[in-house]
Amino acid sequence: MSGCKRNGAAGSGKAAHIAIDPVTRIEGHLKADVTVENGKVVDAKLSGGMYRGFEQILRGRDPRDSSQIVQRICGVCPTAHATASVMAQDAAFGTKVTDNGRVTRNLILGANYLQSHILHFYHLAAQDFVQGPDSAPFVPRYQKSDLLEDRNKDLKAVNAAAVDQYIEALDVRAICHEMVAIWGGKMPHVQGIIAGGTSEMPTKDRILEYAVRFKKVRDFVNNKYLPTVYTVGSVYPDLFKVGQGHKACVAYGVFPLDNANSKFMMKSGVYYDGKDHDFDPSKIHEDVKYSWFEDSTSGLHYSKGKTVPAPHKDGAYSFVKAPRYDGVACEVGPLARMWVENPPLSPVGQKMLKEKFGLDAKNFRDLGEDAAFSLMGRHVARAEETWYMLDFIEAWLKEVKPDEETFTAYEIPESGEGTGFTEAPRGALLHYLDVKDSKINNYQIVSATLWNCNPRDDKGVRGPVEEALIGIPVPDVDNPVNVARLIRAFDP
Amino acid sequence: MSLNRRDFVKLCTGTVAGLGVSQMFNPAVCEAISGSLNGNRPPVLWLQGSGCTGCSVSLLNSVNPHIKDVLLKVISLEFHPTVMAWEGEPAIEHMYKIADKYDGKFFLVVEGSVPTAADGKYCVIGEADHREITMVDAMKELGPKAAAVLAVGTCSAYGGIPAAEGSQTDAKGVRQFFEEEEIATPVVNIPGCPPHPDWIVGTVTVALDAINKHGLADGLGKVVEILDDEGRPTPFFGENIHDNCPYLDDFDNDVLATKFTEVKGCRMELGCKGPDTNSDCYKRKWNNGINWCVQNAVCIGCVEPDFPDGKSPFYEPA
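Predict the joint structure of the above. Result:
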């Protein structure tokens, strides 16, 4: 079977155009169009192929309905959308959430972080490196897939262990969902995250049920997921050198550690032009020149945001808007959070970076800008973040109080507005809510996929993933494995 | 990779924690399938339209049988955008090839609704021959060739949230789309936002059993017989939540919760839509039996054809 459809001859020095549509093993509908010259990507366009219209569907509804509706944006990270929505409602309604409410919310969202990061590595990305069984859905695949054993035939045992972990990770991620459901009610799509806090008070028994499951997940992260990411990474040192993109990122802050929202597990911040900046939400705007939305709605701050689809607009190529921070195309996700927070690396990570790469790295930024902002660096960031949050979950389990109130009553005001800033596992997420006549007057969502997978902005600057594709090696246009590998590393 | 009889029975048997599929149906169902399994797993093509992938993620939570056994032993999942190794145009070509090779004999699973406005442009699922394939195109091409369609999730069954008031994409459930396109392929609805994994796997189990016993056409006829007016299998959707709710005694005694975190009391005043909702959540529970919506907060009626508009506002009594 041949590779992806292309125009132009391979190896002739001329440009070849490769379209990968669909990009699979992601959530949603995405197409990548790349131009390859002399074995490298020289131009890229990413096209988001689906529009459902959540922002229009929400208008006119009871504001409380939003936390249920918005979860249906993404079945992998509904908890994050619920969190952003209830934070926006709390702000608009003037509700003060109790300590126990905040901690319980963290435990629900935290369990799904574990679920999402493990699912991403094993069930979405791993087949970029690991050969699965010879039966559907693991075949067909690229003929020349550059998998572990293609690089080194002695890695049969590593491949076999990774396949076993793929199966084991199915159970581990399901256990994470059980942890979500203990206070979330069910998963996907939770009931438990509501305006004012959470709907179910923790009990001693329930805390124990969570803790027992958490221990299993913790063992898997420490003994399997984290070392495997480094083992795979060590076979692909070249993939630590590509995919740097704009080297710009934004993080909103997630997992509040106090009720004033002044301390977070992962803090907020912005990085571009080689410098750190404080996060200032007024600097966000969304361009739509290359998106299938009315041109008159381009360049707006989200609080003035409008969503008017124009599916046949000439020159546009995506249903994704192009958010910019202070005009800069910033990426979001575990890499952005880890770069901004710069926490210590795991002992496993420190040891393996020393052994395999001769790198003396104590904190995340010790990886250096080039290796951190790389295809493989994004996998490392995700795995290290998973490890880093284990101690926080442990601490919240001690902090959460059995049979103590998690819910604060509130009145829906006649009018009010609020923004909920959080982070989905895949990156920064904000929801803006404007209430008039006690109904939703405007609702705007700037999700991680918008930040990462956007098309060119009004100035013609590529989106973060588009830019990260530049320079990606495609030595064989029939088997352009590195293109989707790079895209998947973002967990788009 | 074929399954022997004993293995299959084991697959379907629940543990104490989770209600296995066999406990919903006569255990003889599992026995019967296991007896006729010949190693040929039925090909399944899984399309995603306007949806959120939540139905697929829910299916991954299948415990009895385990999702690994479903994927490796029960079905042959030839196309699934979130799971499969393949990508790009060759993946779409593979999908069409399987549909031709198994014309009339493969199962089409549809997750998400079919947005029909703007020539289908609101959902492009891939490319073939340098041409965009919309969800509408794929449904027109694959729908008539499928032995049957499983409309998984409320979007696919009834339109769901993408079809809610305010939407501009003219999103439709599969049955409605087939009626308008005059496609006669039988459709089984497995609603829920998302559906419980047992509802999906259990329905597949029943269908395979009926086909094994009665042949393809008559077997599917038997499946259609167990559907209610809304196209849902009655074993899962035949009971009213409120009538079977553990809080029913509270309701009868006028004990009504007025705050979410109250442990006692019927949830009706908080907006619970259990009285207008038919499903077995009250006994099956979710995520390996750990919890369910009414115990945690309220039912929002996500398995019903009028979800979400008919169930909204979610937190006001009906």
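The domain at 5-235 of chain B is CATH 3.40.50.700 (Rossmann fold).
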